Amino acid sequence: MQFDLLLKGGRLIDPASGIDAPRDVAIANGRVAAVDAETP
Fold first, then answer.
1. Range of the domain at 29
2. Which of 4, 18, 26, 35 is the most buried (most CB within 10 A)?
């Protein structure tokens, strides 16, 4: 999949999901398309 923006190695804090860890966040078409420990 191709993304418009990929933020790699940032610290993601999401209290609702209990996540506080390094994650990659991918944006496509103005929306979050993927959140993963390492996005290809």
1. 5-36
2. 26
User: pLDDT digit string (tens) for 21-31?
Assistant: 999 999 999 99
d(CA 23, CA 11): 6
Number of DSSP helices (H) and strands (E) in the chain, helices first: 0, 3
| Count: domains in the chain | 1
- Beta-carbon contacts of residue 36 (< 8 Å; ≥ 6 apart): 23, 24
Query: Of 34, 27, 37, nearest to 5 (Cα)?
Result: 27
pTM flag (> 0.85): no
